[in-house]
Every structure is written in structure tokens, then in C-alpha cells.
Design brief:
The complex is a heterodimer. Chain A is mainly alpha-helical. Chain A is 58% helix and 6% strand. In chain A, the strands form four sheets. Chain A has a five-stranded parallel β-sheet with strand order 6-5-7-8-9, sandwiched between helices. In chain A, a hairpin with a 2-residue loop joins strand 10 and strand 11. The N and C termini of chain B lie far apart (31 Å). In chain B, helix 1 packs across helix 4. The longest helix of chain B has 20 residues. The chains are: A mainly alpha, B mainly alpha. Chains A and B meet through helix 1, helix 8, helix 10, helix 15 and helix 17 of A and helix 2, helix 3 and helix 4 of B.
Chain lengths: 843, 90
């Protein structure tokens, strides 16, 4: 900091402190605004509960106290408040670990040895931590702390070392404030704050102005987070659901729109820091309205751009500055992109514990690098329009800029779609759904026109000027621009106003409060049990955070023992190997001599025995619960305890459930003779409403394994070219329109086979705890089964009224736990009691 | 406005703000925070400073601390010249 700046900053601060009564009123008004922000965050349940229960209340109350403290105490107070926040969110023990690890790392940077030796020691420590994060070394602290430690130190330590070398050491409270930031308690994605900027901008303007700027940013962040919630809950499509150009547009725009969460979080984080005097620069500026790649680079995640400029771009430029200038620019720009690519994976390693390199990732960064180099060279040749003040642009310039912006948005949405697609094949499958109907043209033109209009307006009225140049108008006050619309939007969802507000608006307002995973992600959580964690895409959805916040040190899943645990049942089907037995945490997983997860039974049922063969996917088998806990065993025990004494019948429920079993596989098991071996009186098939996608996954696996698809089904679908599919997405999309044919083929086959063995076919619709209660396709599915001859047991509402989080295994696996199985068992028992024809099915 | 500020101001107006009103570029106008000095412009400005004021700038010195305003640029140039003079004197 130059001496002149210090004089100005101090005099401004001193001037601001000379009018205590005016200060007090303004401060109270700012405090009130933070209070309203807290109420809104709580009303919409934005982000992690600790955000509105701990961070915002602490920030709101803390900054009022902080303001009146002597300057020398203020940073210490902020550090104490942050550590108190860590303690509240994680508990004293884990918070102590964060402090110990943090102080150790900071301590290494300050050892009284040469800088290079300190750097080597820090790298050594990073290597040890990396080994611990990779589970190569034991870790003494809870696994859930890794993402927090990562978000605090993975980049900030590098910036700190750099500034320590060139700027010299700072005082202890400044260093501790820099690392132990209150918002770090809840936000895992954190802007890379520059230490030099952090020091330079601390109370470098009058305090009340800094607080007001912070409040403005908090509100802007809340607005982004509510918009993100709507995009996440309403607009996001799974690749398989994309079936037209309009669908492609929705998929791409929604994916790009999910980035609102990052910008929302960053605004809130820096806004909170403003309340304690850290006048950090803006983090994002109208990034959806960038007109070129260089423009985008300057608007989106500005802290990252500054970090790269400081640590990579300028060092490369300066080390080559005597060479050809164009070549130097190309090398520096490409170095930034390559290192950004690597550091994204570095970031995800600390947050999730796995590296996130993929072909689509490489293609995205490669394309971005090429476009950025081209854009840089173009700008070097032509220059760019700069302005000293926030000025409205001429209509002609605004129009040209608007068209460029619309083109840039379209291209970026396309690249973003590629980046967040699981594979090239999936992305190709999405694009191959293109159609040309009036609605498709309208969708494309609608998006392009909306972006162009927004860009034109911001240029004409100079809304997107950098904060340093912006002049605020009264209507841009956060209470008018953010709090009022958010408050009204929240009110629209209140039951007291039902009937006075359009029903659609009420529905949208209620959806904005929905903290659950959207339909697509909830579905993936069911599959998450066996899905690779790398399937969790960067900013796409909320799954990555669910995984990051999950305790990574869970017991391994012993109920799904992988391919090694299965064998052929003699009919060409998969079954468990007989007599498997695993002991874990005091419970067991075992299979019987017939290769299913159940107690032992004779092959042929005894006299006066009613035997049910129960078939279904992982939750029927009892994924994640101990022997004796799957619902079929609970029902069997209860029937024998409560019904046998009066009926004189012994009940046997045979668990033929298998992980990942689709209805197609169940059909094959029933029709093959495997079930008939056990002479059941009832064939009970358990199904959930995501059954078509389970079939698509099953068929795609068969295709990749080189196993044939069911011939009888393919004959019914002569126009469906499954052979041409190159991804699960394409298989799913090909099958979805024919779900009625699929259901008919399965149910007819199973019902005929059941009757052929003298058994009553029963279909039980049983959801997983987080499944929605209502499904549009449910009546058609049940009608098809009924027509095929099934007795129908509809339990789709079985979990209604229960606290769902208490019925699932954990926050990274939505399968029912033992309590969830008991809920299913109670309802199934009652349903069986109500279906006399099933219990009377004994031969 | 001192001679260094004046020289740098003329350069910035000519190179980056050809259509701007010169009176609006003051000693305290934020050049980096205001989006006038982006990375490309910073590199060009640094080369101009090196050539015109006979100083050598290091990569880590291209921060807002030194280059955000005309006032800071002038202070930075003077400090570099003084350091160089001191070195030569010793």
C-alpha cells in the first residue's frame, strides 16, 4: 500500500467516526437490513441450515458489536467470532482440529528458515494431507472436515506464501482473519481471496459505506440463490428426458443456469466479509451477458481470474517478455487454462476425495483455451472499448453488443452442456434429439431474444458497469431491488393467501422453498449406492455437496458384494453365491443354500404352508440393513406370530431380491423356472416408479457386456433401434416412449408364468423414502398389471407423514434403513390382511 | 499533476481511452477495479513504464497496490527509480 493511500484511508475512516449519532442510525438501519436478509434466507431455507441458523445470525449481531470496538481489537473479534461459528457448526472437537491443522500449516510458512525450505516443508505437509485424503494414511479427524479444510487452505495457502515472499509478513490477526473466515463454516465452494487485496482493502473507505456495499451483495446473493433453486427444481432435465430441440435448449440453459448457485454463494460470502471491514472487490459481474470469451473471463469468478493472473499469467509473461509478443500471449493464456483445468480437479479432490479428470472435462477446457486465445489475439489487434464512467451506450453499439452477447451465451451454454455431460456419447445423444417444429424454433429464438434484450438494456442504461464506476439509483437499493420482490414471492406461497394469488404462482413460490433434491438427483441417489462418485458433476445439481458433506468413513457396503458375489442360477439368471456370510458392526449379511439373502428353507414347502416368492431390486434384498431386517422377513415373522395361530397356516416369504434388478431381469427369473423350483403360492413383484430407467440401465449393461436383449421384447418393438444406441441415455430415450409396451410384455410374461406354476401374481408398488407420492404414469402402469391378472397393492404413499431422513441409510444413500423397512413391513402386512385372495392362495 | 502522472495519463488516454474526456481521468480514478487496465493493458503499461522511466518491473509488482491509480503508478515509479538510484550509488 502506498503511503498516500494510507493517509486517505485513515482520514476517511476518522471522518466517518466523528458523527456518532448519524452513524448509530445508519448502523441500526444496516443491521435491520441484515435482519431482513436473515429472515428471507430462513424463509426460503437457502443453502445449508447452518447458513441461516449460525453464519448470518453471527454476522448480523457480530458486525454491530464489531463496529464499536477499538480498531486494534476488531480483527481479533472477527477471528473469535469465526472460531465460535466453527465450534457451533462442527462441535468443539472437530473445530479444534480445524484450528490445529490450520495453525500448523500457517506455522510452517513462518519458520525461521529460508523461504525455499519453508516452501518445501509446506509441500511436504500438503503431500501428507493428500495421502490422508486418499486414505493411504490414517486421519485422526472426522472425514467430514476434509472439504472444510480443503476450502480453507487448498488455494489460500498458495496465495499467502506468494504474498509472504514478495510483500513480507502481516500481523497475526490479519493472517488468522484471512484463513479462519466465518462463511467457511458452511460454504465449501469459496472464492480465492487474494491476501494482498484482503490487507489493502481493509477499512480503506468509510466503514458505513463498506457495510452498505456488503448488505447489497448479500441481497444480490440471496436473489441468485432463489433463482438457482427455481432453475434446479423446475428446469433441469436428465439427458434421457431430452427429446426435441426445445428440450435441448432447456437442458443447456438450465445447466448453465445452475452456476447461479456459485455466484450467489460468492456474493453472500464477500457480502458478509464486508460487514467486518474487508472491502473485497466484486466476484461476478453480469457473467451471462459476456460478449466474448475474454469478456466472460473478466466477469465470471473474477477472483479466480485475478488468482491466475497473479500466479501464472504475469509470471509467464514476464519470464518471456523479450520474445515475440503474440507468442508470449498465447503461451501465457494456454498456461492459465491448463493450470485452471488441473486446479479444478485439485479442488474436487479435496472436496470429494476423488480426482475429476474426464474426456468431457478435457474437451471443455481445451475448447475454452482455444476460444480464449483467439479472443485475446483479436482483442490485442482490435482493442476493446473501455470507459471511465458508467455511461449509456449508443443504440447502435448496444444492438451490436446484444447480438454478440446472444451468440456468446449460446456457445457457452453448449460448451457448458458438454462439460457437465457424463460422456461424449451422452452429449451426442442429447444433441441427436434435435427436431424442427414451430415450438423448437420459438424456444431457440426465445432464449436468444431474451439474452439479447437483457444485454441491450444493460448497455443502454449502463447497468453492468464495474462496481468501482457504478452510480447507484434509489430503486437499486437492496430493500427495493431484492428484499421486496423476494418478500412478495415468499408471501405468494403462504397458505393464508391461497385463492388470492394465482395457483401457478403459489406453486412456483412453494417450489422455491423446496430444499429437497430435484427429481433427477433424488433418482440418482437411489442409484448412488453403486454409482461411481465421479458421476457427480461439477456444478450440475447438488449431489456433489451431498457427497462432500457425507461422512466418508462409512462402513463398506457388504450387502452388495459385486460381481464376485454372484453366480449363475442354472437358468441363465444372476443369483447370490450360496452360504455367503459377512459380519459388520455387529450385524450380518448372509445367503442361504439356494443363493438368496434369506433364512434357510426347504426347496419344497411343507404342508399347510403359504409360500410367497418376493422379487424386486436392492431394497427388497435389504441393501444396507442386517439379516432379519428386510421388510419381507419382518412381514413373515409377523404373519407367523399373529396370523398362524388362527389360520393354522405357516408363512414363508422367500427373498429373491437382487441389487439393480430391473423388471426385465425379474421377468426373466420368474419365467425361467428359477422361481417355480420353490413352488410358491404367490409371486410378489415389487416395483418402483423409476422402473423404465432401471430397465434402460439393465439393457445398456447387457449391451456393453455383449449379452443379448430379450428377443420376445424386441419383436414387440420393431421400430426401436436399440442396437444403434451408444449410451445409456440413448437406450433410455428409445425405451421411454414405449413404456406401455414394456410394461405389458413384462406383466403378461410374469403373470402367465406365475399362473403356470399355480401361483397368484401380486404387484406391490413400493417407493423409496424420498420418492414423490404422485406420478403421472402410475394409473397406466397399475392398469396394465391389473389387466395382465395381477393383484395390485399400491403403497406409493407408504412414507407420507414420516420424517424421511430418519428412514434412510445416510445422507449419501437413500435406501431405507431398518426403520424404513419396518414402515414398509407394517403397511405390507396390513395390505395382505386386506387382500384375502392373496392369503387364501395356499395350494 | 506531477510529470510522471501526466505522462502516464497521456499514455493511458491515447492507448486505452481514445474517446474519453481527459478531465475524467483523475489521479485517483480506479484503473484496475474500474476495468480499464485488464491483463493485456497492464502488460502494455508496464512495458511503457519500463521504457519511459528506465525501471524494471517484476511480475509480482503488477498489482493494484502499485498500478490501480495514476497516483499509485507515479509513487511506484518514483520508488523504483529511487531504489535503482540507491543501488547505483552504492
Amino acid at each position: 500500500m502506498s503511503p498516500g493511500t494510507q493517509v486517505i484511508a485513515r482520514s476517511e475512516v476518522a471522518a466517518a467516526r466523528r458523527v456518532p449519532w448519524s452513524d448509530a442510525v445508519q448502523l441500526a438501519f444496516l443491521g435491520l437490513q441484515v435482519g431482513v436478509a436473515l429472515l428471507l434466507a430462513r424463509a426460503f431455507q437457502l443453502e445449508h441450515p447452518a447458513f441461516y441458523q449460525v453464519v448470518l445470525p453471527l454476522a448480523g449481531g457480530g458486525f454491530l458489536v464489531h463496529h464499536w470496538l477499538p480498531r486494534a481489537w476488531q480483527k481479533w473479534f472477527f477471528v473469535a467470532l469465526s472460531l465460535f461459528g466453527f465450534g457451533l457448526v462442527f462441535g468443539p472437537g472437530p473445530a479444534a482440529w480445524v484450528v490445529v491443522v490450520g495453525l500448523a500449516l500457517i506455522g510452517l510458512c513462518h519458520l525461521p528458515i529460508p523461504f525455499r525450505a519453508r516452501l518445501a516443508l509446506v509441500l511436504l505437509a500438503a503431500g501428507a494431507l493428500l495421502a490422508m485424503r486418499s486414505d493411504w494414511l490414517p486421519t485422526p479427524w472426522p472425514g467430514v472436515l476434509w472439504p472444510i479444510l480443503g476450502s480453507m487452505f487448498m488455494f489460500r495457502l498458495a496465495v499467502y506464501l506468494y504474498d509472504l515472499r514478495y510483500q513480507g509478513p502481516a500481523d497475526a490477526p490479519t493472517v488468522l482473519s484471512y484463513f479462519f473466515l466465518l462463511p467457511n463454516t458452511v460454504f465449501l465452494l469459496f472464492p480465492v481471496i487474494d491476501f494482498q487485496t484482503f490487507r489493502r482493502t481493509y477499512f480503506d473507505k468509510p466503514a458505513l459505506g463498506i457495510y452498505a456495499e456488503g448488505v447489497r451483495w448479500i441481497y444480490r446473493g440471496l436473489l441468485h440463490l432463489v433463482l438457482y433453486r427455481l432453475v434446479y427444481q423446475y428446469l433441469v432435465l436428465s439427458p434421457a428426458e431430452v427429446s426435441s430441440t426445445a428440450g435441448i435448449v432447456q437442458y443447456l440453459v438450465a445447466n448453465f443456469g445452475l452456476y447461479l448457485r456459485v455466484s450467489g454463494q460468492f456474493h453472500v460470502i464477500t457480502g458478509v466479509l464486508h460487514l467486518f471491514g474487508f472491502r473485497l472487490p466484486e466476484t461476478h459481474r453480469f457473467f451471462y451477458l459476456a460478449a466474448s470469451f475474454t469478456d466472460l473471463w473478466r466477469r465470471i469468478n473474477i477472483y479466480w481470474k485475478d488468482f491466475m493472473q497473479k500466479m501464472v499469467y504475469m509470471p509467464v509473461i514476464f519470464s518471456l517478455k523479450r520474445r515475440n509478443q503474440t507468442l508470449v500471449l498465447v503461451v501465457a493464456t494456454l498456461s492459465v487454462i491448463v493450470i485452471t483445468w488441473f486446479l479444478h480437479s485439485w479442488q474436487w479432490f479435496w472436496l470429494l476425495g476423488t480426482w475429476l479428470f474426464s474426456a468431457t472435462d478435457a474437451a471443455f477446457w481445451g475448447s475454452l483455451g482455444a476460444f480464449l486465445v483467439a479472443s485475446t489475439l483479436l482483442e490485442q489487434r482490435r482493442g476493446r472499448v473501455r470507459q471511465l464512467t458508467a455511461q449509456a451506450r449508443a443504440p447502435r453499439h448496444a444492438l451490436r453488443h446484444a447480438l454478440q452477447t446472444a451468440g456468446m451465451f449460446s456457445l457457452m451454454a453448449l460448451l457448458w452442456g458438454l462439460w457437465t455431460s457424463p460422456s461424449f456419447d451422452d452429449f451426442r445423444a442429447i444433441l441427436s434429439a434435435a427436431t424442427l417444429r414451430p415450438v423448437d424454433v420459438a424456444a431457440v429464438l426465445g432464449v436468444v431474444a431474451t439474452v439479447a434484450a437483457a444485454a441491450w438494456l444493460t448497455q443502454r442504461f449502463s447497468f453492468d458497469a464495474p462496481t468501482a464506476l457504478a452510480e447507484r439509483k434509489p430503486w437499486q437499493h437492496p430493500l427495493a431491488a431484492s428484499a421486496l420482490p423476494l418478500g412478495l414471492f415468499w408471501l405468494a406461497g403462504e397458505p393464508a393467501l391461497e385463492g388470492r394469488v394465482p395457483a401457478t404462482l403459489t406453486e412456483v413460490a412453494l417450489k422455491a422453498r423446496d430444499v429437497d433434491l430435484n427429481r433427477f438427483d433424488a433418482e440418482r441417489m437411489q442409484r448412488g449406492y453403486y454409482e461411481e462418485i465421479t458421476g457427480v458433476n461439477r456444478f450440475n445439481g447438488e449431489l456433489w455437496e451431498v457427497y462432500a458433506r457425507g461422512d466418508q468413513s462409512q462402513e463398506p457396503d457388504v450387502t452388495d458384494s459385486g460381481p464376485a458375489g454372484f453366480q449363475d442360477d442354472g437358468y441363465g439368471n444372476r443369483c447370490y453365491k450360496p452360504f455367503l456370510r459377512s459380519v459388520y458392526e455387529g450385524g450380518t449379511f448372509s445367503t442361504n443354500r439356494w443363493g438368496f439373502r434369506d433364512r434357510d428353507y426347504e426347496k419344497v414347502p411343507g404342508d399347510a404352508t403359504l409360500r410367497m416368492a418376493v422379487l424386486g431390486p436392492s431394497y427388497v434384498m435389504g441393501a444396507g440393513v442386517y439379516d432379519g431386517e428386510p421388510f419381507e422377513q419382518v412381514v413373515e415373522d409377523r404373519l407367523n406370530a399373529e396370523r398362524s395361530p388362527s389360520s393354522g397356516v405357516h408363512y414363508e416369504l422367500l427373498n429373491l431380491g437382487l441389487p439393480r434388478a430391473s423388471l426385465a431381469e425379474i421377468s426373466a427369473i420368474v419365467t425361467s423356472g428359477r422361481v417355480a423350483e420353490f413352488q410358491p403360492d404367490v409371486v410378489l413383484v415389487v416395483v418402483h416408479m423409476n422402473w423404465p430407467k432401471a430397465i434402460a440401465a439393465d439393457f445398456w449393461k447387457r449391451m456393453t457386456d455383449g449379452r443379448p436383449l430379450p428377443e420376445s421384447l424386441l419383436k414387440r418393438l420393431p421400430d426401436v433401434a436399440l442396437d444403434a444406441a451408444v449410451s445409456e441415455t440413448e437406450v433410455s430415450r428409445a425405451l421411454l416412449p414405449h413404456r406401455d409396451v414394456l410394461a405389458q410384455w413384462i406383466f403378461t410374461g410374469v403373470a402367465d408364468a406365475a399362473r403356470g406354476m399355480g401361483a397368484v401374481p401380486v404387484l406391490a408398488l413400493i417407493p423409496l423414502p424420498h420418492d414423490p407420492v404422485r406420478f403421472a404414469g402410475k394409473p397406466a402402469l397399475l392398469d396394465t398389471a391389473r389387466q395382465a391378472g395381477f393383484v395390485i397393492i399400491d403403497m406409493q404413499d407408504v412414507f407420507q407423514g414420516h420424517v424421511l431422513d430418519g428412514l434412510i441409510l445416510n445422507n449419501v444413500d437413500y435406501h431405507p434403513n431398518a426403520a424404513g423397512h419396518r414402515v414398509i413391513a407394517d403397511r405390507l402386512y396390513a395390505e395382505l390382511m386386506a387382500h384375502a385372495e392373496v392369503l387364501a392362495a395356499q395350494r | 499533476m506531477d510529470p510522471i502522472q501526466s505522462t502516464v495519463k497521456d499514455y493511458i488516454l491515447q492507448e486505452f481511452l481514445p474517446d474519453a474526456d481527459a478531465s475524467e481521468l483523475t489521479a485517483t480514478t480506479p484503473l484496475i477495479a474500474g476495468g480499464i487496465l485488464d491483463s493485456l493493458a497492464t502488460v502494455r503499461l508496464v512495458m511503457f513504464l519500463e521504457e519511459n522511466f528506465d525501471i524494471e518491473v517484476q511480475a509480482h509488482e503488477t498489482s493494484a497496490d502499485n498500478l490501480d491509480t495514476l497516483e499509485r503508478i507515479a509513487g511506484f515509479v518514483r520508488a523504483k527509480q529511487a531504489a535503482k538510484g540507491g543501488k547505483q550509488a552504492t
